[in-house]
Amino acid sequence: MKFSTPSVATTPGVTHVNALGAMTSLMLPMADGGGFHPPTLDDFFPPAILFEGTIFEFNRIMMIRVIAAVAITLFFVLATRRMTLVPSRKQSLAEMGLGFVRESVAVEVLGEVKGKKYTPLLTVIFFGVLAMNITGVIPFLNIAGSSVVGFPATMAIISLIAFIWAGIVHARGSNGLTRAGNFFKGQLFPAGVPWPIYLILTPIELISTFILRPVTLTIRLLANMMSGHFLLVLCFSATNFLFLEAAGALKLAGAVTLMAGVAFTLFELFIAALQAFIFALLSAVYIELSTSDH
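RESULT FIELD:
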């Protein structure tokens, strides 16, 4: 069995792929020869499995996202279904994860009162990003659900909405409209600044607060997951080629690329957790920034 990332062979002029055949080829490792296969952007744009050409198009990346979402949901359902005073292993693991987000992210950044209020949201963000990230090192999946822009952008938008909503809720005012006005005024027109400076400052605040923050959240997660996929595919594709197709002593180099692939796999596990933590932490920081001045 080769070590390269699963791929689908395409033939020019063929636009429709049998759903069962596509599913099989996407889930199984590549078994044909043909030399070294470097990683390409095609990995992130697989052919459709269902509903090709529609807004509901379902491909390998979407399938991985569904698997990750179902898996993380089932884990917490099963771990908390029958909670006991003496916890089982699943319950202990779930409590440890939930406690980590509550204490190390929510309470640490927002304080005890606000931290408890926003713990559920930050928990969903952390474990949602973690589940999508970790699929990049799971056999037969081999690509992160967060390595295509849709998921990182969606989570960044959720973080932005939470930032705005928290700011409005904690702003001064007798009703929602007044609080919303005070919140946006505070963000775009900081107090104590001479009014001519607002001509320069307000556009900067608008772009940096409401545009650059979600964009940077998206790019940070996307870039890390994409680069990790490229590294793993490069190492294991090289190992596959060197062990099975290279000549003479060159085969020994396959041991080096194999060890590098294993090392990068462990590193990717760390990066998957780290990026989930950073995403949740920055979301908490943004919520704190939106509420601290009101």
